[in-house]
Description:
The protein is mainly β. Among the domains are: 7-96, no CATH class; 108-201, Immunoglobulin-like; 304-371; 501-688, Immunoglobulin-like (Sandwich). Helix content is 13%, strand content 38%.
Amino acid sequence: MNAYRDPEMDDLGDxxxxxxxxxxxxxxxxxxxRAYAHIEPSVRFRQDLRRRLMREAWELAAKPPxxxxxxxxxxxxxxxAGALVGAVLIVTVAFxxxxxQQHDQINVAVVSPQNNTQLDATIRNQPIVLQFSQPxxxxxxxxxxxxxxxxxxxxxxxxxxxxxxxxxxLSANTQYTVTVTxxxxxxxxPVSKIKPVVFSTxxxxxxxxSTGPRPTQPPSQILNPRSITQIASGSRVHxxxxxxxxxxxxxxxxxxxxSLTSGTAPKHIADGVSMAAVAPDGSIAWLSGAQVTWKSSxxxxxxxxxxxxxxxxxxxxxxxxxxxxxxRRVAGFRENATAADFSASGDRVAYLGASGLHLVDLAxxxxxxxxxxxxxxxxxxxxxxxxxxxxxxxxxxxxSDGSTAALVSLPGVSGLSWSGSEQQxxxxxxxxxxxxxxxxxxxxxxxxSTAQDGTFSAPDWAPSGGGEFSFxxxxxxxxxxxxxxLPGAPPITxxxxxxxxxxxxxxxxxxxxxxxLGQAQAFLDTTGLxxxxxxxxxxxxxxxLARYYxxxxxxxxxxxxxxxxxxxxxxxxxxxxTIQPDASNHPYIHAVSESPRLSFGSGPEVTAVTxxxxxxxxxxxxxxxxxPAGAVSIRxxxxxxxxxxxxxxxxxxxxxxxxxxxxxxxxxxxxLQDVSQRSAVQYDLxxxxxxx
Length: 692
């Protein structure tokens, strides 16, 4: 406060008997600066103000002083007293708060080599390592592992590295979260909140047949090239879904299906054909004259530039628009199209116009001009990215936002194909064959052919993913295998010979997880396509399909759990899929129903159920506490339960065999707990008595 004191203020305080606090407040207010202190008042204003203040002061001095209790209850003393009490309360609460405060805690970093990785659950004693940045008081470190897992602990000599070894191993296809709930340093100083360690485990791998020693790779990357048949100039070759045959239009306009494995004669399909396309179910549509034929339907008086398919049926792209088989308009083009290319799911189409490449969203009708292009190319496996040919090489356009980026500089491109299972593009340019690994940015073309291999144009990957491809040379269709291709298991389709129900469902779910809408639709019959209307067949981003596992598989019926993630939040949906063969005895998904799994992950969860005539095995994702009676049971059936901790499996044994013509309910109640004392969420799973 300013050292200057107003003597008139002191005189007035003496007359009014101000206490010291009020006197100091008055001097403080008198000496404090004001917002307009820089403005110099006039002489007359000063005189009038002084005269008024002195008059009011003498009037107050002439009044008798108030009693002390009234002065205490005056506004200013009361306000100051209230402020003082409030300050005391704030300080008291701050010091008396329960537990140590943040400023009393110390930050300790914890890292783990397992964080954000995928582990192999088949390694039984795979450790989880937590590395602390400071020595810790070992008995103070409390952990929470979800799903609940019994572990053995061990510390290093410096008490900075904690190794957790699961006593019963880790569950496959599961996300784990390890959280340090409380801890203290070696000096007993509490530790601040530590970010959890999150990792997942891989699904259980399917057994593969043993193979002998691999032969030494020959110098050429092009293996077993062989000529198949003649092809009409400007037409495309199409692979069958199983990769076992080719559809080709001969120079005489004959559409044939040529087997690559059986050695049988080509199958004649139609004459006078100028265009063809393979549908997601493996059937083929073609244009002959001015008529399009697909299965039992025909469309007359049309001249499409491309054929495509969506769940509701056939699509035709003309120079002006896209129409359905009954000639209802789906979307129009801003420019006349000279060529077009539908995405696998039929939700988008790329076309060439006067200004170059355009991408059209058939749901909204939005026509996006991408930029200069000299030829069409291929849709990526996600159905959103389109690779096309420019004068400089190959570029990739994003159909979601219309952005484009150069992929590879390679003049003279005569064809390209985007693999369905791997992020690889096969590109022919100047007669040579190159492989391009797609990673979202510019990359390099790696030449695969030599001068002795001959020329290549219009390459097209086979759907098998094993490096098989077709190409065109001197008016002939050839097939070969590229040794530099990434390996991939042949895809399972409904028409794959000997395909099992579980293989069909796993391939269907893998296509959904990869966002391959067209591949997923190929597993559905017409009724199955309608059943998925209003449901998510693929999950692109929010939420995303993180993983899935088959809960129950019985003839004609499979229950699958889909684990969805949105940020750090996990939810789950149980789908019941009905499998039904078609007239050719090929199994297709015929129906579907969904049931959300409420409070997923808040307690032990069922991961698999195996049904036998007098025993039901129920596998869980957590280590369980001792089983109370009735915690896991079959409704209305007397059972005895036994828990195998090494497999996290509860076996229910029935006194009599289950009736194959009867439906039963497996029941898991909240009485079931894991080793962390978390209770299971009520769960019911319907199953049928086994036939054998």
